[in-house]
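Ticket #4471: structure export looks truncated?
Reporter: QA, pipeline team
Priority: medium

Steps to reproduce: submit the single chain below to the structure queue and open the exported record.
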Amino acid sequence: MLSFAFSAVAAAVIFFRLHLSFVAFTRSQCLLLLFIHFDLWLARLSSFHFHFRLQFTAYFHSLVHFHIVIAIIIAIEHHTLI
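Actual output as written to the record:
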């Protein structure tokens, strides 16, 4: 539960700071937000008492979602740099 609270506060601070400074996301900020997003998924997953098979399925879908979003951001950044 503490990990969930820390991640939520960290995400709010990053969004607020970016909103105030009107700065575009850098790769490191995108990856940090994605790691926070993934941590929130894991915190949500661990807070429920699913059957082991359902837990593994939810974890697998979260992992796939996490890597797809990272791949999209890196592809967009690579396209804008060319």
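Status: closed, not a bug. The export was complete when the record was re-opened. Leaving a note from the reviewer for reference: The radius of gyration is 15 Å.
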